[in-house]
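Reopening: Maintenance of mitochondrial morphology protein 1 still failing for me.
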Amino acid sequence: MPDTEHSGDTTVNQVETIVTTVVVEQQVPTLVALDSLINENLKLASASQSSGWGFAHGLLVGQLSVVAVLAFFIKFFIFGNSSMARPLMVAPLINRKPAGVYKKGRAKSFSEVEDYDSETSSTQILDKTYYDVKTHQSESLDWFNVLVAQSIAQFRYEALNNDNIYHSLSDALSSSNLPDYLDKITITEINIGDDFPIFSNCRIKHSPNNSNRLEAKIDVDVADTLTLGIETQLLLNQPKPFTAVLPVQLSVSIVRFSACLTVSLISTADEEFQSSIKCVEDSENAIGDYEDDDDEFGGGAALMFSFSPDFRLEFEVKSLIGARSKLENVPLIGNLIEEKLKSWFLERCVEPRFQLIELPSMWPRKKNTRKPVDSESETAVDSN
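Support: Ran it again with your exact input. Result attached.
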């Protein structure tokens, strides 16, 4: 009991001391000290509340900003504005006439379609391919020379191994109508050469006959020896058949050819082409030299080529006439043969005449599809 009283007295004394201190020191500094303590407690409470509210506010604002940016991007960059995009898409289709449009349900033939503007087409081709016919430099065509050389090499290989060219020429000479004074012609020599033509200085120009048509002018140079040797007999049938026989041996070689080759793609339905074909047929019918090859061109594409009149064609003619007393390399015979060959070339391939090769359709077809043969499949077939 005394201990209890002693502890109670101590507590009372402490309270009295604190109260006394507060009462005694009831001045501004003590009151300020108490106010600062209270303010610190209040500030800690308010700071914790404001920091929690600031984090939630920032998170909410950030999420809303991301949603707004995504909505803006999807609306203006993905979907776009239909009221602004529609005139940009429709206007070109209304103001521009398509070159070739097929609409289902319209039975309109090709002849009923509006005329094809070749002038506009050639101009657009030059613009879109960045080719200026006046300033563009000529091309060497080295890659084309390689392709042509490969084709010629393959042709020579087949001709030499299978004797295709020999049999073809023999059949052509035997089936031709020979005059009565000429005996059967036999081929004695064939040389298909070992060199290749060189194409160079290619340039695109407007055709002088039709400014709306483009054509390629290419310089061609062939320095090779192509030889054909034959032998026959001249028959003297007067006063009776086979009164006398004169053996003749000829060898004609082309040693040099150079010219400017003109190549262009045309449509066989063009009026210009049809009129030129009719003029050629009329002129050949007038002189009785028309060759009916049964070539009827439709309305497809064709490759037209011709050579310039200033071409260079050199021959080497060797002749041997007679049985016992032989005449060798008679100049008159060489000049006559050279003149005939040049005349044949002029009438067929030199401007204004031209040769025409009809091109096949460029659309892919099932019958033209090929597949490389696998070695394993070949082995399986051979084993079976």
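The chain has two domains: 17-94, 118-287+299-358. If you still see a failure, please send the error message rather than a screenshot.
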